[in-house]
Amino acid sequence: MGLVKSQEVLAAEQRAREQSAMELMAQGAITVNLSPRQQLAYDGAVRYASEIDARERAHYEQLPAQIVAENQRVIADLNAGKLYLANDRGDASRTIHFASCPSVRHQVDRDLAHRFELEHAGTVEGSWHTGPGNDYVAKWPNLMTLDEVEQLRAYRACQRCNPDTKERQKYVASSPKPSKLTSVTPEHIGREYQTLAGEYLGVLESYVVNRDLIVLHCSERDYRGTHDSLITLLPKQ
Ligand SMILES: [Zn+2]
């Protein structure tokens, strides 16, 4: 004869499936007997979570004022004649845009830059917006005057906004022709490399190819870039 569960038990099981164990613990629906050490760790975790929550709230509270200040900084840069934007490309070279280029609007317009945060204020958990490397907040627009742009050792002009820089593509003079990182093969182990900016990387010891990233382990330092990044193979001695 099979065991029949009461409606009460079935409802509790359904609730348990729908709710997380943490929630049920908080409601007292699940009680766990913890050892003093476990209790200490649990309390620590709860305290840590509430500290994160407080940091989140503080961040969202000051965000509108932060955006106003950032827009003012951008406007001050533009008024100072910094009408060009230089974006890093993961190598020594940079892409130069007019500050008005549509492809950098999400950087120059700080309301747009923080739009994801504003739309998700309070709904995204964790301190994802603090610290470097998050994809949601557009990076700061690195604005420059044309003189400053021309002082860069290497750059590439954006093909969309076509800024009036002296050259479409500027490489360090007298360096051998750069090639893509994807051109590195096992035969190049032992050869010397330098960056487009002319920084000597030393002898290639090994390299790693990932889906989006290539890392060259060289004797002076490691070099990482995308499959489109450029690198200069020095001539054999
Ligand atoms: Zn552009």
Tell me what the structure shows:
The protein is α+β, with helices and mostly antiparallel strands and 237 residues long. It folds into two domains: 52-170, no CATH class; 179-233, no CATH class. The protein has helices at residues 7-18, 21-26, 36-79, 105-108, 110-113, 115-119, 146-151, and strands spanning 84-88, 94-98, 143-144, 155-157, 169-170, 179-180, 192-194, 200-209, 214-218, 222-225, 230-233. Strands 6-11-7-8-9-10 form a six-stranded antiparallel β-sheet, with no helix packed on it. Strands 3-1-2-4-5 form a five-stranded mixed β-sheet. The protein is extended and about 80 Å long. Residues 130-135 have low confidence and may be disordered. The site of zinc ion has 6 residues, from loops. Residues 97, 101, 103, 158, 160-161 line the site of zinc ion.
What's the number of extended β-strand segments? Answer: 11
Bound small-molecule species: zinc ion
Computed CA radius of gyration, to the nearest angstrom? 27 Å
What is the succession of H and E elements? HHHEEHHHEHEEEEEEEE
Strand order of the largest sheet: 6-11-7-8-9-10
Q: What's the oligomerization state?
A: single chain
Counted by DSSP, the helix tally is 7
The averaged pLDDT comes out at: 84
| Secondary structure: helix percent | 25-40%
Class based on secondary structure composition and strand pairing = alpha+beta
* Largest beta-sheet details: 6 strands, antiparallel
Q: Spans with pLDDT under 50 lasting ≥5 residues? A: 130-135
| Count of all domains | 2
* Proportion of residues in extended strands: 15-25%
| Anisotropy-based shape | extended
N-end to C-end Cα span = 87 Å
